[in-house]
Input
Amino acid sequence: MLQRKKAQNELLKELAASLNWTAVGLKAAAAGSRQSVTERLTSAFPGFWGKYLSLHFGRFLLDPVRTEDQENALHEICEYLDGVQFEIPEELENELDEMNSSSGCIVQCKADEALAEAVNDPEGWLKNNKEIIDQYIELQKTNEYRNSPGIKLMELLKEFNRDKGYNAVFIPAMRRLSPAYDEYMIKLQKADQIFRSQYQS
Output
């Protein structure tokens, strides 16, 4: 991180001294090409979106951009995030802060590990976790569950994903940007079909 900041400062000094935008731009592009996608995104979005992207997509974005299509997809993602606003009610802000906290990140990582296991072997996962799944389905029917802050935030995120272009713009661009994420989504869709066939609501 410090090395990258130093390199950025050096480029700014060179630009100020020479005013040669082309030369400095080429050097900046070369430096960017060595960074992982996660590093580029968290550098561009150091606040909420940076944390969100690192937490939910970081494991799929460990490599640098290698193709023109990937670079275009990254640009589309940045344009989307620059233009979208995620507003939440004040009473749910603590829930969002908790999700982005260290303990929340640990919980999310464990959930991601469980989901990865389910995606890679959906039939085996459903068989081995049938009792837990049945208990969770029953829990979903309770008013306490439906009215909990966590579920209200989840519903708000679903609404955002549907209405603000997240599913239509961001996710397709992310799949073009990351072959690993595209492969994961294909497996996830297949696993979802298997789950729905056994647990139709």
Remarks:
- DSSP finds 13 helices and no strands in the chain.
- Residues 179-198 form the longest helix (20 residues).
- The mean pLDDT is 81.
